[in-house]
Specification:
Layout lengths: L1 H11 L17 H12 L6 H9 L4 H16 L2 E4 L8 E4 L17
Antiparallel strand pairs: 1-2
Helix pairs in contact: 1-2, 3-4
Length: 111
């Protein structure tokens, strides 16, 4: 599966939208394939769901909604990057510019 992901990464370079979805049943080897891809490309592998879960265990539901942007910033660094610096569509977005919408906040408030 790692070879398939690496091939798709190469194919994605030619596309405008570069989203690659890995679809496989639980236990199908997605995580180990991504670990192999990470090792072979020197790209970091971050399980955002796992990291957020760990950091939000002790928070209340409201605190989770309010702390999400800060926690994402800690996990992913200060910026999200799209494309490589030489690419004409290269963008670097500060994490603080991301909005979180939570129906659990009064009025579905954005934070």
């Amino acid at each position: 599966m790692a070879d398939q992901v690496l091939r798709k990464i190469g194919e994605a370079r030619e596309l405008y939208h570069r989203l690659i979805l890995m679809v496989d049943p639980a236990g199908g080897g997605k995580t180990s394939a991504l670990q192999e891809v990470s090792t072979s490309t020197s790209a970091p592998l971050i399980n955002v769901n796992l990291e957020l879960s760990r950091r939000m265990l002790e928070l209340t539901e409201r605190q989770r909604a309010l702390q999400l942007p800060r926690l994402l910033g800690e996990i992913m660094g200060e910026h999200m990057t799209y494309a490589v610096p030489d690419h004409p569509e290269y963008r670097r977005y500060p994490i603080r510019d991301f909005l979180v919408v939570s129906p659990d906040l009064p009025g579905g408030r954005q934070g």
